[in-house]
Amino acid sequence: MDIQALVTAQRAYFNTGATLPLSARRAALQRLREAITAHERDITAALRSDLNKSPTESYMCEVGLTLSELSFVEKRLGRWMADRPHLTPLAQFPARSFTVREPYGVVLIMSPWNYPFLLTVEPLIGAIAAGNCCVVKPSAYSPATSAVLRGILAECFPPEFVAVVEGGRAENQALLDQKFDYIFFTGGVEVGKEVMTRAARHLTPVTLELGGKSPCIVDSTARLDLAAKRLVFGKLLNCGQTCVAPDYLLIDRRVKAPFLAYVQRWITVMYGEDPLDNDGYVRMVNRKHFDRVMGLMDPAKVVFGGRGDPETLKIQPTVLDNVSPQDPVMQEEIFGPVLPVLTFDQIGEALDFVNARPRPLALYLFSREKSTQERFLRRASFGGGCINDTVIHLATSRMGFGGVGNSGMGSYHGRDSFETFSHRKSIVKKSTLLDLPVRYAPYGPGKDRLLRLFLR
């Protein structure tokens, strides 16, 4: 594929104005909805091929969330596109002030392999809703889903409007050589840094959806059984290959033993005596990732699980106890079904531990103490999170989702997606019937008094 020619063709198409009308945007979103519905089985089969996702998990975490986002955006797009009035300062009387949202133009979406359908199409919905043309680059690590995406989007849109570029590192480099008007990247921190560096050459704005080590804090007031159940759900969703998965557990030393007993019980209830034999249990995406996660486990600290099958690329849900901050498992985002456990004696120690590290994408606190909840909400910096649950804060179109610091920049979902892919122009429409002289030279005491009256 001639990537430069593709970008040039998209820019020419954008300049025709074909993507701008509300009717055109709604029609595009409707075509996308119909194609996803028609190809649901193909999407599910691709996710099974790439990650061994079950049909239920595929719908719950990918197809269903995408369709929900489409419905939310379609219903509200007209309101979002409308000019927004603002009060005009007295000094500018008579005039009307308002803001206008315009698309950036030709945008690039680079998506990851862990939720290869959702994390490609959800930002695409925002790009289309905002009136852009778009080049989509799925991950080479999820080839089956990438192929299905290529087919669906080719069925819905001409390539000068929306196009898929498949491939690996060479294609990524070729895309980043082009001048896009906006880049939306989801993936790891190191690649995110490269994307931002390359975008800076063209002064291209970016959204970076990254990750990090998201903590789960459990204090002595938590409902331990329920907290363990919800932690296991969030940790083992997609077998831990989730950017907002609870990465490690910080727990009050007094309740650690009963809590870990509940964790082990819920793992068994959800995935069986040996999840390696569970057909619906998700696998690691490839051998490289499998070996990396297995290498993070210290056998002397395994209290539950610990085995992996290199043939199926599945790894047992694993709990590591008596972990220290210096252990290898605490030096990088795990992105797998391994839960390191650290303890604290006072809740302030847990807060200090979190704040001494790079800002995480998510934070989860299990506590029934309101003062503790407020303490973490106001004094810990993180992208988003939950109190007394895990992961579900991202499963809504009514709130934005994004990181802070090392975990990313920018936000999307629902209106935030539309805003992310739109530039907001501030406009003053001035009357020609009256022209106040106070701003024009020559200046004198009378104009000074009027300026001080207006500008204070």
Description of the structure:
The chain is an alpha/beta fold and 456 residues long. 41% of the residues lie in helices and 18% in strands. It is built from 15 helices and 18 strands. The protein has helices at residues 3-15, 22-38, 40-51, 55-81, 118-129, 143-156, 169-177, 189-200, 224-236, 256-271, 287-295, 347-355, 370-379, 415-420, 445-454, and strands spanning 84-86, 95-103, 106-110, 133-137, 162-164, 182-186, 206-209, 215-218, 248-252, 302-304, 308-309, 314-315, 318-320, 338-344, 362-366, 384-387, 408-409, 422-430. The chain has a 7-stranded mixed β-sheet with strand order 10-13-14-9-8-15-16. Strand 1 and strand 2 (95-103) form a beta hairpin. Helix 2 runs antiparallel to helix 4 (55-81), helix 2 (22-38) packs across helix 6 (143-156) and helix 3 crosses helix 4 (55-81). The chain is globular and about 80 Å long. The relative contact order is 0.14. The model has no long low-confidence stretch (mean pLDDT 96).
How far is the first residue's CA from the last residue's CA? Answer: 59 Å
Largest sheet: 7 strands, mixed
The radius of gyration computed from the alpha-carbon positions, rounded to a whole number of angstroms, is 25 Å
What percentage of the residues does DSSP assign to strands (E)? Answer: 15-25%
- Give helix % range: 40-55%
Question: Numbering strands along the chain, what is their spatial order in the largest sheet?
Answer: 10-13-14-9-8-15-16
**Chain-averaged pLDDT:** 96
Alpha plus pi helix count: 15
Shape: globular
* Category by helix and strand content: alpha/beta
Low-confidence stretches: none
What is the number of E strands?
A: 18
